Amino acid sequence: MSEIAISITSLHKNYANGFHALKGVSFNVNKGDFFALLGPNGAGKSTTIGILCGLVTKTSGSASINGYCITDHIAEAKAQLGIVPQEFNFNIFEPCHQIMINQAGYYGVSRSVAISRTKVLFDQLGLTDKANVAAGTLSGGLKRRLMIARSLVHHPKILILDEPTAGVDISLRRSMWHFLKEKNQEGLTIILTTHYLEEAEQLCKNIAIINHGELITNTTMKQLLNQLNSEIFILDCSQLPVQLPHIENISMSAKESSTLEIEVPKTHTISQIIHQLQAHDIIVNRIQTKANRLEELFIRLVGAPS
Ligand code: ADP
Predict the structure, then answer these.
(1) Is residue 46 lining ligand 1, measured as CB closer than 6 Å?
(2) Nearest to 141 by CA among 118, 117, 164, 124
(3) CA of 169 to the centre of ligand 1 (A)
(4) Is the CB of 50 under 6 A from ligand 1?
(5) What is the pLDDT of residues 202-254, one digit of tens each?
(6) What's the rounded Cα separation, in Å, for the pair 248 and 77?
(7) With left for phi above 0 and alpha for psi between -120 and 50, is residue 279 left, alpha or beta?
(8) Contact between 95 and 109 (Cβ < 8 Å)
(9) What is the rounded CA–CA span in Å between residue 203 and residue 193?
(10) Is residue 194 in contact with ligand 1, taking CB distance under 6 Å?
(11) Residues in the chain with pLDDT < 70?
């Protein structure tokens, strides 16, 4: 049996207005992976996901899901997938548990099985006391959880999440990460698009970055982060001299009277730098990284947002 969950080969999409949104994208996602599909706005992520889900028709190329070709075996291919789209797309007047049962029915799951699965998922996602509440009355974060619960009710092998934590506060986001990590450990293959690069860095083992409809990187998260030869730190110091000292291989600039921005190559440790600064009577009180490492790389690869 193939170890590849999703295989995408030379995928092209020309929209009706002539826009060439995907220009021959190819990558694989292995079974059991936690995979990040990243790229700036308009890169082609949702188009790629839309093609996999059967919502967008590809212009050319091929894709298969757990070995089922999306052209020849779309029903089997779709049955493998759970999808959490960017936009809430449930009936806001329907009670949450009914949304789950309807979705399960759509995939041929019996009502009794759907009820017991809903109980488990609502319990895991903190939705139990909302089971009989109309979905439209939930907070944004709980709506997001309902979307995740609904995507899993037919027990898909692969879960695709398109910006699942957009607009979700940090504590809810972290509890979602915890839930998704557990599901992944149980064997669920997860593909995630997100704007929170910290999220991708923490969760994902492998990564593809697309930009302007082209694949620009497809590697392990570890290898990608290793490409970063330096890291930028913001140092909160007691005070800075008018003339900053020269420390070999370190570029530094004063941002305010007591804030120093320094770029530290991988060959140096931050404690070495702190000692060297101390030797020049610069006492470091606090340190923070300027951006998380993936963010830094992302900006270098695709450019800062305009
Ligand atoms: P992402 O999800 O990475 O933000 P999308 O896949 O949504 O990117 O969009 C890729 C590009 O295709 C964008 O420039 C977008 O404007 C364009 N696009 C998306 N949908 C359509 C459509 N239905 N018709 C024409 N252009 C579209």
Answers:
(1) yes
(2) 164
(3) 27
(4) no
(5) 899 999 999 999 999 999 998 888 887 888 899 999 888 889 999 888 889 99
(6) 57
(7) alpha
(8) no
(9) 11
(10) no
(11) 1-2, 304-306
In the chain, beta strands by DSSP E:
4-14, 20-30, 34-38, 60-65, 68-69, 81-84, 158-162, 189-193, 206-211, 214-220, 230-237, 251-256, 259-265, 284-289
| CB of 45 shorter than 6 A to ligand 1 | yes
Q: Which residue has the tokens 């139990």?
A: 128
Alpha-carbon span 59 to 242, nearest angstrom? 61
243/241 Cα distance (integer angstroms) = 5
Task: State which ligand 1 atom lies nearest to the alpha carbon of 40.
Answer: 3
Which region, left, alpha or beta, applies to residue 212 given φ > 0 means left and ψ of -120 to 50 means alpha? left
Ligand 1 atom nearest to CA at 56: 23
Ligand 1 atom at minimal distance to the Cα of residue 49: 6
Task: Report d(CA 214, CA 97) in Å as an integer.
Answer: 40
Rounded to 10 degrees, what is the CA torsion of 279, 281, 287, 288?
A: -100
Over the stretch 1-26, which tens digit does the pLDDT of each residue have? 449 999 999 999 999 999 999 999 99
Asked if 224 and 297 count as a contact pair (C-beta separation under 8 A), the reply is yes
Q: Mutate which of 11, 14, 15 to test ligand 1's pocket (most atoms within 8 Å of Cβ)?
A: 15
Compute the distance from residue 281 Cα to the ligand 1 centre, in Å.
54
